Input
Amino acid sequence: MPENHDRPSRSVRLDHRQVRVLAHPLRLRLLGALRVDGPATATTLADKLDTNTGATSYHLRQLAEVGLVTEDPDRGVGRQRWWRAAHDSSNFEPSDYDDDPDARAAVEWIQSHQLRFLTEHADRWHTARQTWSARWRDAAGMGDALLVIGPDRLQALEQEIWQVVQRYQQESPADEPDARPVHLFHAAFPRTEPDR
Output
């Protein structure tokens, strides 16, 4: 299990600067890799993400400037710099950036990237699922429901769902020998009818 899961979950509400810096494909991948796999050097991350160390170092420094990653001084030897995610998760409300067109555009890009990420992972699972046990195939899946609900109750529902998710994140998988990392995607959108 990655080292960053050994500490209590910490979340950051992204400010305007952070969201603008995070709206970059390599920076999102770097932050994600540090959150999932734990501390690493720029060289290790460059190898993992199939990029060069110079670009990785530059973008890690950009993330560090806004407090999304930090150096891990206990690991560094000599000139070697280790980096870790400063938080376990990020959150924001799109309306946080209504007064900042650049931050609003950054959030729109991040949300579009999340949709691509979901689609890519769903496609990979769909392709590989027959190589997994029946127990895993039965446990994994998707579903949808149509609710008639207002924004206040929808927000309460979203918060309740994330409380359940956080509880499962904090429980130890030590009692589950077949535990694996699982991506959980959740989305709730008002139903819109296509133009006719």
Summary: Residues 28 and 167 are 25 Å apart (CA to CA). The two ends are 50 Å apart (CA to CA).
